[in-house]
Amino acid sequence: MPASGASPAAAHGGGVPRESTLLGMPRNMALASLVIVLTQTGLIVGLLVANRRRKRLAREQGERLRFEQILTEISGDLVEASVETLDNAICHALEKVRVMMEFQSCMLFEHVRDTQVVRILYHTDAAVREAIARREAEIPMPWLCAQFQYRKAIPLAHALQDLPADAREEQDYVRVKNIKSALIIPLHSTDGTTHGVSFCTGVAYREWSDTVISQLHALGDVLSSSVSRHRAEMELRLSEERFSKAFHASPSAMVIFRARDETILDVNESWERQFGYTYAEAAGHLPEELGIYRSEKERLRLGSLVDTVGSLRNHEITLRTRTEREVVAILSLETISIHDEACYIAIFHDVTDQRRVEEMRQSMVHVSRLALVGELTASIAHEINQPLGAILSNAEAAEMLMETENPPLDDIRQILADIRKDDLRASQVIRHIRTLVRRAPLRLLPVQVNEVVLDVLKLLSTDAQRRGIILHGDLAADEPEISADRVHLQQVLINLIVNAMDAMKSNGTTIPIVDVRTWREGPHGVSVSVRDHGHGIPEDRLPQIFESFFTTKVEGMGLGLAMARSIIEAHRGSIAARNLAEGGAMFTFTLPSGNGNGAGTRNATIGRSS
């Protein structure tokens, strides 16, 4: 029997005592259960976290997809919008983003170049849109404008706190608008304008993630591109309107035609009046179909010239109207692009009347020359009779010598040489007269002024002797050279000198001298003066002295001085007349000179008083 008080184990013969239990379970089993419970708890927590993360990622993915979908819709709306509807499309786009992102306001603005001012272009607030319509939506923001150069987004989670101390204007704007958070993104458009977009919250603060910044930056780029396109289209439309108004209002005839086949695309009203065809009759046709060109050869020559040069400036051409009337026009042609197709715009300035006036002027010049020749008949006869008389005398002397038994051949040879010399002299006089009376256009060539003066003085010497007048030349020693038409310049001098001699015809002057002087006028001019010692020009008639058909002579036509002024002005010179205090009048003209320097004068006196 076991002893009293012994344990059951002892009663069975002893052994190791059992481990304590937790809730009646063995310790090992309890620990295992605890590990299992903790593991399951961790798995559950992990699943919850993963699920929450998955839901957040799904939400973010959904928001991204929704934003991308909205951005796609906005892009499509803006692309399809016309110039008239683009403003509403941009406002609608900003409002759609504002609602989706739960912003207080969204706006698109631009930095006014060379200022510290931003101009609001579009805004989701109605009051601001009214200010935009009144052109009062400009805000000074110097700090913000300075940040545009960095081209980086400016996230302001706590707008008032995140703005630096020197951004006072921006801080005031945030206070007035009660802005909690803001995101500002600078944008640089293709036309060089600096745009920007801003998104603001007014209820709660907001952190701006990189994803959101990237999304809103993409939106800003779309809006900025649309604004630039809108402006470009508006400027193009305004340019086309201005061009159309100028084209149709131009007093010069204008036509637009395709470069590849010369088909007429448009004509203005002046072209219709000048050529006699309406727009409906001309459009779609070729110029040769309308008979505009005088000949096919002329059309090909003009086409070749255009193909070679690509444009024309002041090209004179003769064209035909619907009534076969010929029109002289100055043509200028330039290449333009219409709907991406190369075209030409041709401008015709009608100079038919001017050319007729020019022909009349040339005819008047010719008549004036003939009149001068008539007045110089005595001088011409004297110039020709002298060599002819010498030829006759020498011929008679040669005949007498030939009749002798032993003719002196050396003397005969000398006589023949004199005859040749006198013949050449007479021939030269004839050629000079023919040149003077010939009708020819203005030809500018290098001319020695002194030589022209001496030729004229020699030509007029006989007339001066007959009148008892001395022609005196006081000529520059450095032989000034000008670019002029020799014959036209001679005509001017003849007119002035003959007028000077006429002025002293019946005044009883004691100084019967006409002074002709040449000198250099500064570094680039040559002046010639003709002075008489007559009574001068009446002061009340002096302003009219160069007008056509105005004369102080009873028998005068009033053409000589008008022709003289016309010739001098054609040489890019000037002519003037004045009375002298000591008596008489002086006519002076100045012409552009060539090169040459020097000083001094040389004298020449031709003719004697009788």
From TrEMBL:
It is an enzyme of class 2 (transferase). Keywords: Membrane, Phosphoprotein, Transmembrane, Transmembrane helix. The keyword Cell inner membrane does not apply. The chain crosses the membrane at residues 29-50. It catalyses: ATP + protein L-histidine = ADP + protein N-phospho-L-histidine. The keyword Transmembrane helix applies. InterPro entries: GAF-like_dom_sf, HATPase_C_sf, HATPase_dom, His_kinase_dom, HisK_dim/P_dom, HisK_dim/P_sf, PAS, PAS-like_dom_sf. Its EC number is 2.7.13.3. Residues 379-595 form the Histidine kinase domain. One of its GO terms (molecular function) is phosphorelay sensor kinase activity. SMART domains: HATPase_c, HisKA. PANTHER family: SENSOR HISTIDINE KINASE (PTHR43065), TWO-COMPONENT SENSOR PPRA (PTHR43065:SF42). This is histidine kinase.
